[in-house]
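Handout, page 2. Input:
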Amino acid sequence: MVQDGRRDHARAVAQRELRLPEPLLPLARLARNYRWSWTRGGPQVFAHLGRHRWERAGENPIRVLRDLTVTELEDAAEDQDYVAEVARVAAEFDAEVDLDEAAEALEGGAVAFLCAEFAVHPSLPIYSGGLGALAGDILKEASDQRVPMVAVGLFYHQGYFHQRLDPSGQQHEYWVETHAEDLPAVPVTDDDGHPLQISVPMQGRQVHARVWRVDVGRVPLYLLDSDVEDNGPLDRWITARLYVSDRELRLAQYALLGLGGIRALRAMGIEPTTVHLNEGHAALAALELARSEVAEGVPFEEALEHARQRTLFTTHTPVPAGNETYPPDQMLDLLGSLPDELGVDPQRLLDLGRVHPGNHDEHPGMTVLGLRTSSRANGVSRLHGQVARGMWFPVFGASDPEAAPIGHVTNGVHHPTWMAPAMRRLLDRHLPAGWFDHVEDPGMWEAVEAIPDADLWAVRDELRGDLIEFVRERSLTDRLGRSETSDYVQAAARALDPGVVTLGFARRVATYKRLGLLMHDPERALALLGGPRPVQLLIAGKAHPADEAGKALVRELFALKGAGHVAERVVFLEDYDLAIARRMVAGCDVWVNLPRAPMEASGTSGMKSALNGGVQLSVDDGWWAEGFEDGNGWSIPGQTEHDDAAQDDRDAETLYSLLEQQVVPRFFERGEDGVPADWVAMVKASLRTLAPRFAATRMVREYRDGMYRLPPRG
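Output:
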């Protein structure tokens, strides 16, 4: 029997049921599968058990159910309306999730999706930012479309860092331990009921890891964990933190993910027909696929070609830091006995990661390794595919970038996760029946034009108001925690105005994202904040602990906090995460994106904003190069220049001019009914043109039908 953790999952559900009254038994299986988080009414059935408890637990149903007293559970079980709603949510959940059926589907051909991070839900803190959010959406949509998929990542016990700022805006990092018992994670066991454990050779020793299973709808997510007794202290630390600064430790993580991920799947009896490497971190996986064939007597080159035919590689960034290279000696030290096991000269393996094979001075890289050991490769937008071909065509011996075999699948976002309930309720009333099951169909969205302007504007007012209520409370806490002056703390209580156009800027704080453009001309920016028709700005984001330039951008922003109107019109929310992102993309009127073109591979936060009636003001880069049409947002031309300062001056001028001449007048000019008709027309155009095109439904379908090697649907 395949031991893939289903038995362990069922045992965990049964243990949770022991505490629950019979009418509430469905809560046990809901809590153990993240499908609850995008089942309609799923979050509400847990929040009903105590709003404050729910928020304090980080919207984690495992903790909520554990902390409820017997009396509280019995009281909830006597509430007939609540019991009926639990039954309704459970029925919808059960119609979508059958783990045995999903496991059987894997036997006909499966996709193994390997990624360094997964942002499935805030309560599972094993993500950093956009790459993880995209991976989480792919798993959810694969579940919805019944794509036979398993996923593999690492169980980071301390996750990504948490962020605190001091009064100067200096970022300080700290980490918080995540305990498996607080998560819907179960240890996978073997035939004898012992925890399943795999090992990976590194630097002449065996690194051991156990396997946890987390269910994301029909898709099992397996997380490798090196914090086991058989490892020494250093090896136990391999899976402690995401994106550690120590390069040798980071390389060990990649070896565990790539080599160990394939070994873990095989230990559970899962043999994927397609291995999807979501960025270069797992690029060693193809060598593990080849190793098993070499052990059976297949020559290395033939085994490697077989592995290539099974492997798909997606590159996510043109930024150098995302395309890591390592000294040859460090790579060989890590690989240890692998060259011998493959029966190949070590230099052959190093050449797989070199743009120019045979150049022993060139450092091999994970992106090149991923490209060389895969038969299909793609960027994550049309423009990024073009940029990637221009970067990597020498890898394929091509003289023309367009001859490089790198295509594109433009990113998309998971509608059930990112669309606010208020917006969905409005669209349910006006779009054709069943529209939510066919969000990629543009025809479903034509009815947006017939929505009464007042109704759509009322939802936008509601979402903005909800966001500002959250921001005021959170900002007050942040400023108190920084020991700010009393005046600045008190300004948090009146921070932002529900009637003012709200700009959102939230993403990783890296220099190419150009946070500084927002205050590039302080005098002009302050005039916008304090004018008779003001704008207000909500910012969030983290700089990597080693990114001093990124940290300096935040300090520069904080240097202006004493200037007029900044205290109440500009808010920086600390410790940006999925929970903050969900509120911001729902409530901000304008989503601002200012990358230095062409460094933005895709971006997805703007797609999420568009789902909720937000309007885009973005550089013509990444996904926006495909999405922008006259009337559905604003675009800053994405020309590239060698002079960064000149490019910044030009783009800042365009940004301020658009805000002054387009954004502010359109938002504040109202009809007799108090509705800004021109603004609402733009919101409608945004919804109609962007929501279907940038749906995860379309993205996953393109992967399945064009990139994955799966049998035809039955």
